[in-house]
Amino acid sequence: MSYARINSMTFVSPEAADAVQEQYVGTAPTSFTEATLLTFVRTGPTTASLTSVYPDRAAFDRSAPIRQERMASNKDKIANVEMSEGDVALVHSK
Prior knowledge:
The protein is α+β, with helices and mostly antiparallel strands.
């Protein structure tokens, strides 16, 4: 069963949000190679929701060190992160 991580992020400024967005959009597909779905949704000037879906929990777990490294490299740009994870019941794309 697919497994997902949802990050709700608040950045220290719109410029910090812009920088993280640019970095994520440019590098996430090659960093999180096992992800079957990656989204970065800008929900406001200083907020975003990032969702990643993996084929299974094992692939999700393998991505954790990469996430930790990326979060650490951007810690000065991030004011707050709320992370959720769980089994995926539906991924619909049209």
